[in-house]
Structure formats: C-alpha cells, structure tokens
Amino acid sequence: MQTKQTPQPPAYLRLADMRTRYRVSGSTIWNWCKTNGLPAPHKLGANTTVWKIADLLQWEASRTSAK
Fold first, then answer.
1. How many angstroms separate the Cα of 18 from the Cα of each of 4, 6, 13, 27, 48?
2. 17 contacts 53 by C-beta, under 8 angstroms
3. Domain membership of residue 45 as a residue range
4. Domain holding 48: CATH number?
5. How many domains does the chain have?
6. 48-52 vs 42-45, strand pairing mode
7. Angle between helices 15-22 and 26-35 (to 10 degrees)
8. 3-6 contacts: CB < 8 A, separation 24 or more?
9. Which SS3 state, helix, strand or coil, does residue 52 take?
10. CB half-sphere exposure, 62, CA atoms < 13 A
C-alpha cells in the first residue's frame, strides 16, 4: 500500500523570495540584517544564501509584539 506524501513548504527563502515577501529591494534586506535585527542568512554554497523561515517567523512575531 502506498501512502501519499503531502508536499512540505520550503524551509528556506532565497534573496528573491525575501524581496517578494517583504516588498523591498535586496539592498534593504541586507541593511535590515545589519541594523534592524533581521536574522542572519546561511550560506549553502559559494552562490547560495538563504534565510530560515522559522527564524523569519520568530523575527516577525517579535516585531509585531514590540509595537
């Protein structure tokens, strides 16, 4: 008997996904990392930088509760 696997949402976002999610430029994303507490990205390779979605959700929640 085969079981169907439910597709899992991605665990990471790349810079293009970050730009879409927050509707800002790539430069703004990098500035937020330096000055606004955005979680640091993870390097997966020479040309691959990603952010953990779990870290981003935690950051978003902390910003919402701080208001």
1. 30, 24, 6, 11, 13
2. no
3. 12-66
4. 1.10.1660
5. 1
6. antiparallel
7. 90
8. none
9. strand
10. 10
- Report percent pLDDT > 90 for the chain: 75
Q: What mean pLDDT value characterizes the chain? A: 90
In a domain, 50, yes or no: yes
**Token pair 């597709």 is at which residue?**
7
Tokens representing residue 13 in the block: 């976002």
Whether residue 3 lies inside any domain: the answer is no
26-54 pLDDT, tens digit each? 999 999 999 988 999 999 999 999 999 99
- For residue 25, which phi and psi values (nearest 5 degrees)? -80, 165
Q: Retrieve residue 43's tokens.
A: 């390097």
